[in-house]
Amino acid sequence: MKHTRILAAVVATAAVAAALTGCSGASGSDDADGAGKTLRMWHYEGADSAMGKAWAEAVKVFEKETGAKVQFEEKSFEQIRSTASQVLNSDQAPDVLEYAKGNGTAGLLSSQGLLAPLDDAVKKYGWDKKLASSLQTTAKYDDKGIMGSGSWYGVPNYGEYVEVYYNKTAFEKAGVAVPTSLSEFEAAMKTFAAAGQTPLSESAAEYPLSHLWYQLALTKADRSFVDDYQLYKHKVDWNGEPLTYATQTIADWTAKGYISKDASGIKAEDAGVAFINGQSPMFVSGSWWYGRFMTEVKGFEWGTFLFPGSEFTPGSAGNMWVVPEHAKNKALAEKFIDITMRPEIQAILGNNGGVPVAADTSKITDEKSKELIENFNTVTKRDGLAFYPDWPTPTFYDQVNAGMQELINGTKSPAEVRKQLGEQYADGVKDIVG
């Protein structure tokens, strides 16, 4: 998530002929002639981020090749998340925008008829050939808005996943090695806590702590748990080992001082900045921070490692470019999306801390970026992408964050938090699948 996440991607397509007949997603024109036209674009990536840099170059290429102009409107993740249904159901809808993937976000909008299906564009441009099958899951939704099958409603041009950012300088000073098991990870946190430092920079007001909670559950999970939780294959046991262990561990780590109780009111931005400032030696969060840390971390050496003791990690294809059903320039939107998938644009993304999905890896020259991409490839090769904890329902993002706040505040016990989240999860899923 930046999706729940805080930073991510943008756009998709359809075409004029089918749009005129009321059918979405046609790619009838041979090319997108944009002379005298304006493509309205929304996304929430910073100009200095990997995606921001890559897409800025894509805009230049797009304007040169089509003759159209791009009108970019920067929106925050929360602005788009909270207003999408209303805005996309009006004549104020942009032509292309970055939107969060998952059942409760892109899936919900697709089921409401607010996104244009992109099947014709996928065939025309061959995007399905550029995306590994595991990365296509979040691009497709059925008529109920459940991911994994049905029509294409979005196109990701980068990947994302959660890992552990660590302060190499602090680790060396404390004599702590990079942990390769969960017990070693806990031992490292104990060392830092004993020295008076909170080991984990956290945010419970937004996604980071819920990502850690889900990651802990994944250390006790298999693929069937992920399919049940994310795809509703079977009923989720909220008293089973994965969720019981995760919820209790968050409470335990808070009691031990590994997570600050103050995190209940801290937002993701503040947690990331705390790591940048060297206030905590570790930050468990998404690859979307990578490019920013490359430019903003000045006072110490840093690196990353995959969360130890787990074959699975929160992650997926990145947030997607989607095309609203009410978009006025669908053919131009799909042309822009295709440009973002070109090797030269993917290389910009990859050399600036992003995780490209269609890059020529020989063009990735930055050593830190190689580390990021190699870790992602490790996860995808073992089929370890497990999506995000809030995806199953449209309301679960706020609910799981509230649960994490109550957990570290001590206003609810781990058992009470599990009961509350289990009921909210079941109610939300029922609304989707009936």
Automatic annotation (TrEMBL):
SUPFAM superfamilies: Periplasmic binding protein-like II. It holds the Pfam family SBP_bac_1. Residues 1-28 form the signal peptide. Gene3D superfamilies: Periplasmic binding protein-like II. PROSITE patterns: PROKAR_LIPOPROTEIN. Keywords: Signal. This is Raffinose/stachyose/melibiose transport system substrate-binding protein. It comes from Microbacterium azadirachtae.
